[in-house]
Amino acid sequence: MNGSYRPTWGWTKMLEINNLVVAYGGIQALKGINLTVEPGKIVALIGANGAGKSTTLKSIVGLVKPVSGSISYEGKDLLKVPTKDMVRTGITLVPEGRKIFPDLTVLENLKIGAYCRNDTKEIEKDRDWVYELFPILKERNWQLAGTLSGGEQQMLAVGRSLMSRPKLLMMDEPSLGLAPLIVKNIFSIIKEIHSQGVTILLIEQNANVSLKIADKGYVIETGMIKLEGSGQELLVNEEVKKAYLGEAH
Amino acid sequence: MSFDLFMQYLTNGISLGSLYALIAIGYTMVYGILRLINFAHGEIFMMSLYFAFYGIAIFSLPWYMTFLVAVLVTAALGMLVERAAYKPLRHSPRITIMVSAIGASFFLQNLAVVIFGGRPKAFPTVPMFTKVIRIGNISLQALTLYIPVATIILLIGLHFLIQKTKTGLGMRAVSKDHDTARLMGVNVNKTITVTFAIGSILAAFGGIMWGMKFPQIVPTMGLIPGLKCFIAAVVGGIGNISGAVLGGFILGVGEIMLIAFLPGLTGYRDAFAFVLLIVILLVKPTGLLGEKTAEKV
To answer: Residue A167's closest CA among A86, A81, A249?
Structure first.
């Protein structure tokens, strides 16, 4: 359906983070993490509140400046790319707390997702695809985004990010504050987006649902990567079970 | 008061209100996008009058050329003020930027004294605008009718720009959330520059028409209209463009009606705006059309 959503096979590593250190006023939020995302994969970064998950994403898109370390994307030094040009490289972030524009209509929110593009016809195609993924957004086309429910706002945030035709879609806690049924819905759509060839980096506190769809998972604790492995490995890992899956022994 | 006389006052009030509205939009747009009161806006208005004055008096350009050049130079000045006084402080506390705005205001005022001289100058009038026309028993300067018409055209243009263009979409996004707008690929700095340019262009249009209505210019003349239009923006709900327009008209019509019905209070015409401000702040602090959450988190 969307032929242009093809994985970039040219690089075995699409995104590579090396020894990333980030500090907020002297306190280290990230203490040298390493993380790689291969093209065409779903990668999940799980961890508790304050472990450094959001900071990792924010440094990738340039909203936070790291103290040291490197981030490269398709062989380019990403630290040299300003935030406003990030979307042009093919990276989009669905920010924590959705951050939709409440005073803009649903349609305008989608339009601003395609702000860096000028191919009107193709933009319309992508908008129709988003409407196909989230029919409720089509119904609410002219409504102000602020009037949507939490789940609908999350759908809009995901839809908006798709409007830039991302190669790498990053999501900061898409399940936060949503009812289980809606979480299930959102995650099935994440899989659908992935099947179109979009690489996904997912950040979640909800380890269970995210590791189930992930090819690879990382567990972050107080600014350090504690564990990494395939989604399946981590799901059955005793430590992960105890700390994140809420299973008693 | 006869009906004719009332209509004459009302037309004058609407005309004055139009000018207030044009200047007030500059305050409200900059506040909307930066949460900053651009105290230098009144001085930008004043400068536009001098630019127009020199265009006609020194370079003897035809009036329409003069006005066009004055508007463009004023836009450049507005962008320059932003670049010099606000952009370097983008990540500073708001109080710092506010002090910088007050500094920019004093700087421009004194710069005007140094360059243009402190003595009042007579703004050159254009006969086409100042001729008196009669409608029934009402006699008015043609300008009094042209001003609201020009204002409406400018407002329609502004509405189109903000609601229908990509630049406008970017402006609306930036006014909500700089970081998320950046993530969408919006060039926030450029958007801020454009906002200052638009605010200054409207102030220049307002200024030039002001100059023809009250044809005397001095470097301190930006102060009171600046304050009044700031009040208009606050009364309407700062950050809201329709609010600024509404506030401008309320202020203009209110001021003229005060003189019309209570001639004894003519000396207090400037006080009207400030009394209105106090009342609004007591009754509805967010302004008539203001957002509920004026504070940016």
So the answer is: A86
Helix (H, G, I), strand (E, B) or coil at A225: strand
Q: Are B146 and B131 in contact (CB under 8 A)?
A: no
CB atoms within 10 A of CB A248: 5
Question: CB distance B185–A85 less than 8 Å?
Answer: yes
Instruction: Give domain limits for chain B.
Output: 3-222
pLDDT value of position A11: 57
pLDDT tens readout for residues A197-229? 999 999 998 888 899 999 999 999 999 999 999
Q: Per DSSP, what are the bridge partners of residue A200?
A: A42, A169
User: Does B188 sit within 8 Å of A103, measured CB to CB?
Assistant: no
Exposure letters A51-84 (e unless 16+ CB within 10 A, then b):
bbbbbbbbbbbbbbebeebebbbbeeebbebebb
3-state secondary structure (DSSP) of residue A158: helix
Q: What domains appear along chain A, each with residue ranges and CATH number?
A: 40-63+81-244 (3.40.50.300)
Q: Given this model, what pLDDT does residue A1 score?
A: 43
What Cα–Cα distance (Å) separates residue A227 from each residue in A46, A60, A141, A243, B193?
10, 20, 43, 12, 47
A99 in B contact zone (CB under 8 Å)? yes
Residue type at A129 in one-letter notation: W
pLDDT digits (tens, 9 = 90+) for A93-124: 999 989 999 999 999 999 999 999 999 999 99
Least Cα distance to B118 among B12, B219, B248, B241 occurs for: B219
Interchain contact, B183 vs A87, CB within 8 Å: yes
- For residue A203, count other CB atoms closer than 10 A to its CB: 26
Measure the N-to-C terminal CA separation of chain B; round to a whole number of Å: 51
How much of chain A is in helix, strand and coil states, percent to nearest 5?
Answer: 40, 25, 35
Distance CA A91, CA A171 (A): 11
Residue A47, both tokens = 């961890």
Contacting residues of A for B186, CB less than 8 Å apart? 84, 112, 115
Condensed to tens digits (0 to 9), the pLDDT of residues B1-54 reads 788 889 999 999 999 999 999 999 999 999 999 999 999 999 999 999 999 999
For residues B240 and B288, what is the distance between their CA atoms, to the nearest angstrom? Answer: 10
From residue B77, how far is each of A195, B30, B71, B263 by CA, in Å?
52, 15, 10, 39
